[in-house]
Amino acid sequence: MSYIIIADDNKDITDILAIYVQKEGYTPIIARDGEETLKKFSEYQPVAILLDIMMPKIDGLEVCKQLRAISTVPIILITARGDDSDCIAGLDYGADDYIVKPFSPSQVMARLRAVLRRIDKSLVESENVIHIDNLTINLEEYSLRIDNTYISLSKKEIETMWAFAHNINKVFTRDNLLNSLWGYDYYGDSRTVDSHIKRLRSKIDKVDHPNWSIKTIWGVGYKLEMLTFQ
Prior knowledge:
Number of domains: 2
Helix content: 40-55%
Strand content: 15-25%
Number of strands: 12
Shape: elongated
Strand order of the largest sheet: 2-1-3-4-5
Largest sheet: 5 strands, parallel
Oligomer: single chain
Order of helices and strands: EHEHEHEHEHEEEEHEHHEE
């Protein structure tokens, strides 16, 4: 199920946008203030956020800034202000687009579709990006995210996940991983690999990934197991 957060303290606006979001095939999640938006982002990991700038507790610009520190989730700002400075600030903070009230819901949906198409296209076209289930690995950026949460990993940890993701359910022996990641001249032993995998797991397990996991094959090595992989 894919969620879209509609963050606005105006119930009339959230009600109508929720109807249109459902027509697009998404499940709307309503947030009435900035704090609730951040909380529901962590809870639902939405595919996009429609974010009003003028909200109680934490305004939309600050919410956008905080989200951009941890995620690339598409954000479309909604503002009632006539001052372009808010929109410019929002774009500088990392928003993908903005729309000014009053607006037609169909216009908002058109902007939403355009943003989501750009995201999907960038994932499909890049040879240096793997996208499986809720896992995305980008070798151009040396980044990894689960749903819309970036996980801070070392270079070798990214390369380990890249190797696993390119070989779903293939078992890598410890020697395989030592040779491919550290090189043939490395004088470490299997404990190096075990420690490496342990650190990697501790980082990626901070975000739920129920359909896949790094599985230990006792006496052999490790593999990325996809429980629902097709």
